[in-house]
Amino acid sequence: MEMFGQNVFNQSVMRDRLPKSVFKNLKKTIDEGLPLDPSIADVVASAMKEWAVERGATHFTHWFQPMTGITAEKHDSFISPADGGALLEFSGKELVKGEPDASSFPSGGLRATFEARGYTAWDCTSPAFLREEADVVTLCIPTAFCSYTGEALDKKVPLLRSIEALSTQAVRVLKLFGNASVTRVTSTVGAEQEYFLVDKSFYLQRPDLMMAGRTLFGAMSSKGQEMEDHYFGSIKERVLAYMKEVNEELWKLGVSAKTQHNEVAPGQFEIAPIFENTNIATDHNQMVMEVLKRVALRHDMVCLLHEKPFAGVNGSGKHNNWSMSSNDGQNLLEPGRTPHENAQFLTFLMATIKAVDTFAGLLRCSCANAGNEYRLGANEAPPAIISVFLGEQLADIIDQIVAGKTKSSEMSGHMDIGVSTLPSLPKDATDRNRTSPFAFTGNKFEFRMLGSSFSISGPNIIINTIIAQALKEFADVLEKSTNFDADLDKLLQDTAKKHQRVIFNGNNYSDEWVQEAAKRGLPNIPSTPDALKELISKEAQEVFAAHSVFSDKELHARYEIMVEQYVKTLNIEALTMIDMANHSIIPTAIEYATTVAASVNAVTAVSSKLDVSTQKELLEELSDKLAAMSANTKALEKALEEANGIADADKQAAAFRANVFTMMLELRSTGDALEKIIAAKYWPLPTYREMLFVL
Description:
Ubiquitin-like (UB roll); 3 domains; glutamine synthetase activity; 22 helices; Gln_synt_N
């Protein structure tokens, strides 16, 4: 208890260190979303500085989240010169506003290269914190990042806008149900984080892991995950020591890290927090990823957050557990004991279903990047088809709504295991579906398509906005009603009839579901470049503009950035593959082939009667595969050159997907085939067996 939050300038610390009037003023902004009173900035800054310096801090930084998907910071010391000496100073102006160079961050055309000015603005709703690295302590202040002309250059500003949009529309609906006290609704998130650990010595010998974060070559070992013995297995001492230090760092930062376990693939693990306000949850997930990577190095390991670091075994995702909470303490997705009678719950549930069906393309887009393309639909993650899992109880209620009257809820009861000494367990209302991309899990929805490396801000911006739109449409109808109950029943029935097609409680991995989804008219967008286009569709532009989440200019900028990142990622991977092929694998194959040829000559020289057929067969196989690899390397070089010569961004991305991506798979297959026949002492790269099973 003493450890948790000790490095956070939280409300408890502020209550102790700020004058009562200042604390009360600031707390109203944090709790109620009221405008920040600039007159309190100097007082808060002074208290924040004193607290940080007492704990060893010498520098402060505005900690922000540009469109790179990771965090950024510029450190300034508290020292100011004074009469030949120095003072420790930190003003309200320095707290509220910073000015990092904006020209070198992705802007999608919002800023020209020569236009450098950008601003960071203090986000007082996310608490400042101290980061300890070795003997260095830095005060980190969560901030928003915008351009000189006012456009959002980061992931925080649109997230905060989307939270406000959701609150506005949700409050309208709640007031229709007679809730006069509610003033604010916020979305809540708990982000489960999957990751791999590899020994640092292996990582440093793998150019692909260093440059691309994933293995571009690598034959499967004789054992992978097929024995299902790693999942939830006993955690090895080395990993457990690492997890202990990760937890301690996160707890100091106020991150409620709750669960840790072995994941499905060997070398794969998961950490999960308790849910919290989406803005803070997003900041905390960035901290989680940073801590996972930083602490791993102290244990001579490297944490891999790529969505598919090892082909052939489970990839890494990030499950986004999303709900809505009102300031009077309600979880708006809590069904209650009799959900069929809970009209308020059914309204928010139906709004969510409507939003997911209407904007399925946007949800797919929110999880699209080069890494996740290798993972989605690979019998470990949901396919590129968006659907909703409700479970038997709620699906039955939806059927009743469609039929015109809700009469009952399927009860869960208890489960008798059949052993007298074991307790009778209360049975949940429905089973869970681990194959669904958007699954209801009791009192929240679990969006399971996010990749491990993702900032959760993008998907949650979209979820908040599209559900705000559905709630707006509901409120627009019901606020004009003269018979609320009757009109609500009709609204829910009409919505259920129109959007029931998106509900699917079966196996999302099956080929049958792909065919069924097509019959239902649900979109299936496997390609990242195609998925990204959903961001600038007419429907997307309209919904973001309607809720002031993105201007048209900001939206197109993000599309350009995401397309550019996709192309750059594949370009780096292709160049790394070519380099590894030409400077490592092909020379190794030639060396080994020469050794085998020398063996044939040496044995034959002793006696022509000696059998050298095995060596000759191996030499022929080596020569064939070596020739194929050389040809595939040249083909990839050509495809890469042609793709890089395309000026139009959309056409270039399509060429990378169709040609470069395809040739990378071809080149990998020949490289992996060579690994299987070249003697272990010659092979220049750490193998899957070493990387996945040696920790």
